[in-house]
Design goal:
The protein has about 600 residues and is mainly β. It is about 0% helix and about 40% strand. It is built from two helices and 31 strands. A hairpin with a 4-residue loop joins strand 21 and strand 22.
Length: about 600
């Protein structure tokens, strides 16, 4: 017989009515590529496999073995494994021998007599998928409480006595598909509050599910969102932070597929009377649904009379959302100041502010088709208003170099438009219609802004306390700064708190390509104080798709240092030293942030 380890070998035993023992495989040890046992009606144990410690990519499959009652022989498994699949083995009562397993590619449990997942209590990582289906005795997932991570798909379906999924509370970030279907005793999904993005979302036929508040952190879904036939569901507040249904994933490897049609399907929820939670993703609450731009003719949006009264059309949802908007938001000119990004496409973002003359300026930093730094500036007439679209003209500036920039060489050509809608001090949406950027960003504000009343808005982390009691507030130096002698490049500063901030440089390399740099400081910024701010440069190694989606995650490297000194509200000096050379700029304030004081608290903004 076989002896030793065979990491590339997969053994398949299928439809063997006389197979009652695996003792002939007793010579196997260490790693085996895979072992599949399917339809062996009299096999009771796996005795003979005691020396195995790991299954490779083809994993272990135990399927439709009606007499299999023990997997004790697998107690030697530990650490990382390939797939582990248990399907239709009604006499198998526990998975205790798997207690040493910490990581699997796919985990599938479909067994009628398992009443717990206790044998999986050591599991910390699933890399591809988790399927828990047709386990009528399973009441909870507490034994998965050590599971962490993101990126894989989850299916939880047809578990007729499952009461909660609290054991999944350690999951965070972006998941693949999430399908929760036909779990009649499941009342909530609160454990999923760490999930921020999904590639597919389906909540269907869960009789006692009263809310989906566990999805409160989800900002983006890829293409498909189905909420179907949940008779106890009365509202969709758990989707209140959902802002974008993307047509394409944030990272596409290796070749981007064609854009996906969007499917938003809310039907058959007979007691659903409040769909305000869909307000942001449906569009601008002050416009009827047909006038909103996110959905096209090939997209499917079904919200109809099969739901309860008040949730029977997209306009019902938009109207309910508009009724909920906070009545006490500050003046809108204060809303835009600072840094914003979409968590779904971290590695790009915008810095924007409203100037005292009410002009709105937006700096968008991202990448070109090859994944190299690219930036554009957009302007609009302000100040704008809450929940109303602001139309920007986008300019592409060319002709600059890092060493010896001549303003007369700079050209600024309009290349497209952006539409910005801001719902509150924390969130908004940016729809882009420019070459290579036919998509939307679900914007999230990054941090506070010194002296802004938006700092007190729900969802914004309060600024850190002052270093010393009684010290007056620091000046707000948020805005755009430049040297007139090198007009065409410059800085924007986001003054976060007394001793924190973000500096952006928008300029060029000596070959004329775009260059943007980001650095943060974590010490007090006051007049005539010199800061040394480390700067980083970013790129996307595998470039971008034709619509501007990343083909791989952005990467960064150290670029050099910004030496920054501000003498007053309008003047200062900056020296850049790094991979592209050295230059010193005599800074002047190009545009400050409207409504924010500079200097003493009583002094007006510049």
């Amino acid at each position: 017989g076989l002896r030793g380890a065979f990491p590339d070998l997969t053994i398949v035993l299928e439809s063997n009515p006389a197979l009652d023992s695996l003792e002939d495989f007793g010579g196997l040890s260490g790693q085996l590529g895979g072992f599949w046992i399917i339809e062996s009606p009299i096999l009771k144990t796996l005795a003979g496999l005691e020396q195995l410690t790991q299954f490779g990519s083809n994993g272990l499959l135990l399927q439709d073995n009606p007499m299999l009652e023990s997997i004790e022989a697998l107690s030697g498994l530990s650490g990382e494994q390939g797939s582990l699949e248990f399907r239709g083995n009604p006499e198998l009562l526990d998975l205790e021998p798997l207690a040493g397993v910490t990581s699997v590619e796919n985990l599938v449990v479909i067994n009628s007599n398992l009443d717990s997942l206790e044998g999986l209590r050591g599991l910390t990582t699933v890399t591809e998928g988790l399927t828990l289906a047709q386990n009528p005795r399973l009441r909870h997932l507490d034994d998965l409480s050590r599971l962490r991570g993101s990126g894989f798909f989850i299916e939880i379906s047809s578990n007729e006595n499952l009461e909660n999924i609290d054991g999944l509370a350690g999951l965070s970030g972006e998941l693949g598909s999430l399908s929760i279907r036909n779990n009649p005793k499941l009342q909530h999904i609160d454990a999923l509050k760490g999930i921020s993005a999904l590639r597919l979302l389906s909540i269907e036929q869960n009789e006692t599910l009263e809310n989906i508040n566990g999805l409160a952190s989800v900002r983006s879904v890829l293409a498909v969102l189905d909420i179907l036939n949940n008779p106890s569901l009365v509202h969709l507040d758990g989707l209140a932070n959902l802002e974008v249904i993307n047509r394409m994933p944030s990272v596409v490897v290796p070749t981007p597929p064609p854009p996906l049609p969007i499917s938003l399907n809310i039907q058959g929820n007979e007691n659903l009377t409040d769909c305000a939670g869909l307000g942001r993703v449906l569009g601008y609450p002050t416009l009827p649904f047909e006038a909103n731009s996110q959905f096209g003719p090939s997209d499917l949006v079904l919200i109809n009379e099969s739901n309860g009264e008040g949730a029977q059309s997209p306009d019902d949802c938009l109207s309910a959302y508009a009724d909920r908007l906070p009545p006490t938001l500050p003046d809108f000119e204060l809303a835009l100041h600072g840094s914003w990004f979409d968590p779904f496409t971290s590695g790009e973002g915008v810095m924007m502010f409203t100037a005292p003359n009410q002009a709105v300026t937006l700096y968008y930093y991202s990448y070109d088709a090859d994944g190299q730094p690219a930036w554009q500036v957009a302007t609009a007439d302000g100040p704008g208003a809450w929940n109303e679209p602001i139309e920007f003209t986008v300019f592409d500036t060319k002709g600059g170099v890092f060493s010896g920039l001549n303003p007369e060489d700079i050209t600024a050509e309009p290349v497209g438009s952006m539409t910005l809608t801001v719902w509150d001090c924390r969130t908004g949406r940016l729809d882009m219609d420019i070459p290579g950027r036919d998509r939307s960003l679900a914007l999230d504000r990054i941090g506070t802004v010194v002296a802004s009343p938006c700092n007190n808005h729900p969802g914004i982390a309060p600024p850190p306390p002052m270093i010393l009691p009684g010290v007056p507030p620091p000046p707000s130096l948020t805005g755009a700064w430049y040297d007139p002698a090198t007009d065409g490049q410059g800085f924007t500063l986001h003054h976060v708190s007394h001793e924190r901030g973000v500096a952006y440089f928008f300029g060029y390399r000596d070959d004329g390509s775009d260059l943007w740099l980001i650095g943060t400081w974590e010490e007090p910024l006051s007049f005539e104080t010199t800061l040394q701010i480390p700067l980083r440069v970013f790129q996307v190694p595998f470039g971008l798709s034709s619509r501007g989606f990343f083909n791989s995650d952005p990467e960064s490297q150290e670029w050099g240092t910004l030496t920054l000194r501000l003498d007053d509200c309008s003047n200062g000096e900056a020296t850049l030293t790094g991979l592209d050379g050295t230059q010193t700029l005599d800074l002047q304030l190009l545009a400050g942030a409207a409504g924010l004081p500079c200097g003493s608290p009583a002094e007006a903004a510049p």
